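ARCHIVE CARD
SHELF: 3
SLOT: left
DATA:
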Amino acid sequence: MFHPILRKVGVDGALLDAMDSEHAAMQAADKEITAALSTYAASASAAHAAAAQETVRRGRQVVISHLDHEEAELEPASKPHFENPEWQQAESKLKKQSPAVLGQFFAWLQDGGDAEAHAFVRQTIPGPVLKILTAAFGRGYRKNIAPVWR
């Protein structure tokens, strides 16, 4: 959604290509994890448990590597374009997601974020709305996902 806008405004195409490749790698890791967990669930064997654990470990590394890369390079390259009308339009589309999707997203976005990230979110989303979304709809993230990442 945002990459075409960034390409249009001149953000390094090689960086955006790398991001696209990393997104594909995360999707592949997700499929591998799903398959490994399904295999383990069906067999409950120690060997399948160990294989699933290793698959999750590898997938976690793929995601963390991507997020680190995104924070280090893509966010600084994107920030000057946040006021671009096309960027604003794309953000508007994101805001039309269901409360469940937004609650999970904002809970994730704020988890482990630095002061600048938190300030940006609070500047973008009204405080009461953010509180309701993350408290009511971000619970699944906080309960099931955040503990795994820590």
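SLOT: right
DATA:
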Amino acid sequence: MSESGMNGAGIAVNESATGADEARKKKFRQDWEESGGGQLCVAFYVAFKKYKYYVETHSGEMERPSGPIKNKYEEHRVFEECLSTLESYKRKREETLRKNLEKAQSAARCEHEFLNGERCRAPRVKGKKLCRMHEGLEEAKAVKLDLGSMEDADSIQVGIRKLQAAIIDGKLDSKQIGHLAYTIQLAAWNVTRTTTALLEAD
């Protein structure tokens, strides 16, 4: 099979798997919405949003002597508790995202140096000096298969041809093939995001 044929087959398999997952999720969602609990939950969600909007647009009515705030009606108190819980969850989620972003930005970077002298900016694998892609390239060399630099589309194609030849010659086991194929996939994904590619685009 040609390289384009292998790549096309791989994309078709991935798209098929993704489509099957989406169809399954959609079916699960439909089954839940048709269940008794699902119908009640959806109705509650819709009503909650409507009442929240009403409270926001009719604040004067809420403050009346006969209103729910002055009289602490149980239904309104439940609404306020739900709203408070949602806002608390939102704040915690935003804080978690902020901390994760700070952690990612401060993570040690890969020590691989590109041909133009620039360093790779991807985060290192924990306990390693390289990112996942370049760590994979080093492991490929350990099995006596140098896929090359794989820093642009042409060199990635060279790496694919080398992997194909090694598979045909029976030099690799299934685990090594899977690992190296994943490494090539990462390289293809990263090729338009590297410093070299961005400089060439400019």
